[in-house]
Design brief:
Blueprint: H1 14-37, H2 41-67, E1 70-76, E2 82-88, H3 91-95, H4 99-125, H5 129-182
Antiparallel strand pairs: 1-2
Helix pairs in contact: 1-2, 1-4, 2-5, 4-5
Length: about 180
């Protein structure tokens, strides 16, 4: 193992990893640092929500697909029921996913939500109800991604188990058939 190698080379998709972290960090950093430079709550509200929405979109549609091979969305049926849709790569592609990319994806997803919770607690302690609203919107976007990707990962595991069971059953059946066709 070469310890002189830059850590970025260990990631299969360093650009995607960078933007995955950058969008999350931008919303958090602007919210935290904005009190030092901006006096207008409206500007803080709008810019933080826009950055959090961009992070939500990038995670849901780009980095989730590239880093962990998963994508989710929600549709409303004609009857008005909410239907969750999941998309994942095939089993061979999922097996080839980079472990560091996956690790970065999941940890930043959870740590961002934890950071928004801590910031929400600070806003409540300081009695800044308007900032609780900003944190609430950002936290809900983070939690929506966590919920969607967690359900998607569980659905992908079910598909893999179903595929494995079906493959084993098919091979067993063909082995039995070939054994009896010889006789």
């Amino acid at each position: 193992m070469d310890f002189n190698q830059p850590a970025v080379e260990n990631y299969a998709n360093p650009t995607t990893c960078l933007f995955h972290v950058l969008f999350k960090g931008a919303a958090l950093a602007f919210y935290i640092l904005s009190a030092l430079f901006v006096d207008s709550f409206i500007i803080i509200f709008v810019v933080t929500i826009v950055l959090a929405a961009l992070d939500f979109w990038v995670v849901k549609n780009v980095s989730g697909r590239i880093l962990v091979g998963l994508r989710w969305w929600n549709e409303i049926s004609e009857e008005g029921k909410s239907i969750w849709k999941f998309e994942c790569l095939d089993q061979q592609s999922l097996a080839r996913m980079n472990k560091k990319d996956s690790w970065l994806f999941w940890w930043t997803l959870y740590l961002t939500a934890a950071a928004w919770i801590v910031l929400g607690i600070f806003s409540i302690i300081r009695f800044e109800v308007d900032y609780v609203l900003v944190v609430g919107v950002c936290l809900s976007l983070s939690l929506a991604n966590i919920y969607g990707f967690t359900k998607c990962r569980k659905d992908a595991k079910k598909q893999i188990q179903s595929f494995a069971t079906q493959t084993i059953a098919t091979r067993f059946s063909s082995t039995i058939q070939s054994a009896f066709s010889v006789v």
